[in-house]
Design a protein that fits this description.
single chain; alpha+beta; 3-stranded mixed sheet; 9 strands; rod-shaped
Length: 351
């Protein structure tokens, strides 16, 4: 028994809504005719809310256009042209003209975003397949792609389409045989370059064992110092020889010689052997010292040069930190030596 009244009430309610919509539409037409466009817009909006009809949508668009609500007008013109099946040519021309006029006061945003991304303009979700009509001025665009969100403030000038291109981190490349191989080759090249630089720097790195180098260097310094001392003594002795020879030349007769003591004896001139004996002794002593000092000078000079040569050789060929003695062979050894025939250094080992 409750069903029948409910069923009867449905047509009555629907009829009441239709009558209210017609009344609001008629009131809107009167207000539109009086050029009270803002009030007419409200009436047409209420009529469309009660019962959506193409005529109410078109008049809502026209009254919104006349009252300066450009975005509302453009949306309702678009809605009318898209949903109405049969539109008279004159009405269609008028609607399209109104749409163009409304859009001339509006801006548009063209979103260039990755596939699958979602976007909102001023908090309203939008379809990004076509330019989005917006009111002229500042707008907030939020684009979400995977786990990344970009917020962009955009200025949309009237009558223009503004491109919006947020920058997102590119998706990681899936490893393939090529992408796995190329980094390894680069790593090998980098390793080879680093090895070459390491080998070059190791040339100037002190060897692992330095005492032979320092010992040979000390021998070199000692030899050169000794050579300098005995070189000076030899020069001094040679000078003594020259003085003694000059003394004998000035005071002795021609042909007189310390090897023939009798040649100095000349009683007629009052010269005796004893007067020149001291000079001859001095000459013999200076000659002996000159020969001895010259020999020591030569030997010391050879030892000094050999010591420095040994130190330099050890620095160049001795094992260095980080080297592999097993790969290079037996450890290199430089041994300075001095003998009866001179001095030098010997090297043993392998490169």
């Amino acid at each position: 028994m409750l069903v029948a009244p409910a069923a009867a009430a449905a047509p009555s309610e629907s009829k009441a809504i239709e009558e209210a919509a017609r009344a609001r539409y008629a009131e809107g037409l009167k207000l539109y005719g009086k050029k009270r466009y803002e009030e007419a817009r409200v009436a047409f909006f209420q009529a469309s809310a009660l019962l959506k009809r193409p005529s109410a949508t078109l008049m809502l668009a026209q009254s919104a256009l006349r009252s300066g609500h450009w975005l509302e007008a453009a949306r309702n013109f678009d809605d009318f042209l898209a949903t109405t099946n049969e539109i008279p040519d004159k009405v269609r021309v008028g609607a399209e003209k109104g749409l163009r006029e409304a859009k001339s006061h509006l801006g548009a945003l063209k979103l260039d975003i990755p596939d699958g991304a979602e976007a909102t303009v001023d908090g309203e979700k939008v379809d990004v397949k076509a330019p989005i009509t917006v009111a002229a001025g500042q707008h907030t665009v939020v684009v979400t792609h995977r786990d990344e969100t970009k917020t962009i403030e955009v200025d949309a000038p009237a009558g223009k389409v503004t491109d919006v291109r947020p920058n997102f981190v590119p998706k990681a490349i899936i490893p393939t045989a090529d992408t796995r191989t190329r980094p390894k080759e680069a790593a090998v090249t980098t390793s080879q370059s680093a090895t070459a630089e390491s080998e070059e720097s190791r040339l100037f790195t002190p060897p692992t064992t330095t005492w032979p180098m320092y010992a040979a260097g000390a021998i070199g310094v000692g030899g050169l110092v000794t050579a300098a001392i005995f070189g000076g003594l030899a020069a001094n002795a040679r000078h003594g020889v020259e003085v003694a020879n000059e003394t004998l030349a000035r005071n002795a007769r021609p042909g007189a010689s310390c090897s023939r003591p009798a040649s100095f004896d000349d009683p007629a001139k009052g010269q005796t052997i004893e007067e020149f004996q001291e000079t001859c002794d001095t000459l013999a002593t200076q000659q002996r010292w000159a020969s001895t000092h010259q020999g020591v000078f030569t030997t010391s000079l050879v030892i000094g040069l050999a010591g420095f040569a040994g130190a330099i050789t050890w620095f160049l060929v001795a094992p260095r930190p980080g080297g592999d003695a097993k790969e290079k062979g037996a450890e290199s050894v430089v041994v300075p030596w001095v003998g009866p025939m001179g001095a030098g250094a010997s090297w043993s080992g392998s490169f």
